[in-house]
Amino acid sequence: MQQVMSERNTKMHPHKFLLWVAIGSMTMMFAGFTSAYIVKSNQAGWQPVPMPKIFYGSTLLIVISSLTIFIAEQQFKKREMARYKLWITTTALLGIAFLIMQVTGFLQLWEQQYTFQDSVAGSFFYIIAGMHGLHLAGGVIALLLLFFRAFGTKTRYYSAVPIEIAGIYWHFVDLLWVYLFVFFMMVS
Q1: Disulfide-capable partner of 84 in 17, 19, 46, 76 (CB 3.0 to 4.6 Å)?
Q2: Topology of 16-43+52-187 in CATH?
C-alpha cells in the first residue's frame, strides 16, 4: 500500500505533462522564428525595427507579474483565499496592462511606417511579437478564469493543479517575452 501511495505522489498530472509538451513545441516555434529573423537580416536592404519605448515598461510589468502569480500560487496552497484573490487579480490586471502596452507599441511602429508592406523586418517583428501576444492572451484568459472562479463560488475543492498549470504557463510566456525583448534589442 505504501508503494502505491509513493508512486501516485511521484507521477506528473496529465495536464502538466501536456503543458510541458506544448511549451516544448512553442519553444521550438519561437527558436525557428528568431533563427529566420537572423538569416533574413543578413540580406541587403534590411532595416531593423526600433524597439518602441513602451515595450520597456511592458517588460517590467510582465516580470512583476511572474512574481505576483508565484505569490498567488503560494497563497492558494496555504488556503489564504483573500490573499490569493488579491494576487490573482493583480496578475490578471498586469497581464491585461501588458497586452494594452504591446498594442500601443505596435501602433506606434505602424505610424512610423514599419508595416508589412514597407518593412520586411517589421513583418518579422509583428509576426514574432504578435505570436507571443496571442500566447499571452491565452494566459490572460486562463488568469481571468481563475479570477472568476475565485470570486464566483466558495472553494470546496482545494486542488492547486489549475493555479500551478497557469503559473507554469505564465512564467513561460514571461520568460519568452524577456528573451524576445533582449533578442530584438541585440539585433536592432
Answers
A1: 76
A2: Four Helix Bundle (Hemerythrin (Met), subunit A) (1.20.120)
